[in-house]
Amino acid sequence: MLWKASPLTTARILSLSVGNGCRNVRPTLNVRCLTTQSEATVSALPLAATVFSTPLYVALTPAFNQKPSEPNPKENVVALDPEIFNHPIRRDILHLVVTHYRDSLRQGSANTKTRGEVRGSGAKIRPQKGSGKARLGDAQSPMLRGGGVAFGPKPRDFSTKLPRKVIQMGMRIALSAKVREQKFGVMTRLDWPNGRTKYLSQRLSGFQQTLFITGEDQVSTGIQRAIRNIPFVALTKADEVNVYELLQWSRIILDCKAVEFFERTLGKNSLYIPPTTS
């Protein structure tokens, strides 16, 4: 739509659009001179409205069953990105990602020898005719004991390919599933300066089948040494965890650095895959 507009009118349109917070219309101006009454071409291009999601608030988890004399961190909450921790649950995506990960774990080292690889002479055992028995070749025949294997397994690569964005979506779905099941916790920091397994095991009495995830570049030696001897409890880094581990453990607890890592790495390049109808 073309129309003559003065600089005052144009400025008023811009102020109304920005002041009202309207994101549906973006004015595109092609003005030769803003100080004179020259003609200005204004075109309105419709844009999709920007959606501002409400953060997801989660109370901080007490650090290793704190004593009654210690301050309770549940009075504090941490805001989580709903794009990461409140993603719609997609079982089909989880199946794809878990299958892709388990395929990469297969060694594919099974190997058998064919009749051409079995040691022995290639001479014919008996004449073709005259014996009254079935025709038979050399001793490496698959029909004979000690012979080769027909159509046996050979070393192969079982790994499959999966788009990176689908794997990232699987991480978002796995984290969101733990939040919805209330098997998700956040701590300020994962540290155990004492380094003694005995005392840490007493403080972790209520954290069975728990995976602790830290976003620190260097994991504390004290907690790493103390937690490795406690059964049903593990510690890993945020950049090393995968969807299979998130689903395998009953509960996951992150520190604030791990939350920041997931929001930074999984909050970009979102991908939508429509669910398949069966």
Please outline what is shown here:
Residues 108-155 are annotated as: Disordered. This protein has helices at residues 7-19, 82-85, 91-105, 164-180, 197-203, 221-227, 243-248, 256-266; strands at residues 25-31, 40-46, 56-59, 77-80, 184-187, 210-214, 233-237, 251-255.
Describe this protein's structure.
The chain is an alpha/beta fold and 278 residues long. It has 2 domains: 157 residues, Ribosomal Protein L4, Chain: A (3-Layer(aba) Sandwich), CATH 3.40.1370; 44 residues, no CATH class. It is 29% helix and 15% strand. It is built from 8 helices and 8 strands; from the N terminus they run αββββαααβαβαβαβα. The strands form 3 sheets. The protein has a 4-stranded parallel sheet. A two-stranded antiparallel sheet has the order 1-2. The longest helix is centred in the middle third of the chain and has 17 residues. The protein is elongated. It starts with 6 loop residues before the first helix and ends in a 12-residue tail after the last helix. The relative contact order is 0.13. The N terminus is likely disordered.
